[in-house]
Amino acid sequence: MFSQIEIDLKKLDNNLKQMTGPRHPILNAAAEHLFKAGGKRIRPSIILLVAKATNNKTELKNEHKRLAEITEIIHTASLLHDDVIDECNTRRGMETVNSEFSNKIAVLAGDFLFAQSSWYLANLNNLEVVKIISKVITDFAEGEVTQGLTNFDTSISMDNYINKSFYKTASLIASSCKASTILNDADLFTQNAFYNYGKHIGLAFQIIDDILDIIGNSTTLGKPAGLDLKNGNLTSPLLFALKESEILNELVEREFSEDGDLKYGIKIIKSTNGIKQATDLAIEHTQTAIKYITGCKESEALNDLKKISEFIINRLN
């Protein structure tokens, strides 16, 4: 699916491992630790494909390549902070930075990467792009605070969940998609079309992640399964399942505090329609994403952007 940007993605990987800089050995080692673990690189892939889909030239601009790197740096910085908040010990099959070093180093490394991304962002010399991407970092913080205030709260609505998912995941993809079109001097219609594409692809991606937290295992996830449940992060599969199970409501309200509660809670969710309803919701968002870019000029890159929706849903298989 990403064959046309394969070389660019390899260069991106090399650049990410180098661009943290050697100024402080510990911070550099902490950031590099997570970059070396790799990842799906779905965000920079989308950014590069949007750049190709909205550009008449075959060659990508250097600004697009740097935007893709900035997007991955911001995402990685948010993971460093997430792992501290969630007390997560493994990520991408490796020890997390907070586990390998300390919580303090992980938070500082995350701050360092956010600052580094801001520096590279400013050097794009495009004020509109700077404004759009800078807002994402605010959204991350708002999403984390919202999540923290609603832990184990069975009264939260699906709208609350979608809004939180936007702040934590979809905002970065949506804003980066729009920024990619701006760097190509695209008109406002095209900018908004790809912003909405990124928004709904991001929401679908988060929903599938939340389903995998329930049905996956530590080997396939690269992190402990059931972590969201354990931390009281009520996701779509759980919210749908709560409507069918009074016992599940009781388990959440006592915060899975008794032995076997978490395992029993996962079993209950799997026995309800929660997984199917959450999957249907993710599919709905991928279909909405595709609708937004259907009227755009046909190209190989546009077709690959449409295929990403299938890739996201197929993560469940």
UniProtKB/TrEMBL annotation:
Ligase in keyword set: no
BP-aspect Gene Ontology terms: isoprenoid biosynthetic process; quinone biosynthetic process
GO-annotated molecular function: metal ion binding; prenyltransferase activity
Entry keyword Transferase: yes
SUPFAM superfamilies: Terpenoid synthases
Pfam families attached to this UniProt entry: polyprenyl_synt (PF00348)
Protein family: Belongs to the FPP/GGPP synthase family.
Protein name stated in the entry: Prenyl transferase
Species annotation: Synarthrophyton chejuense
Taxonomic path: Eukaryota, Rhodophyta, Florideophyceae, Corallinophycidae, Hapalidiales
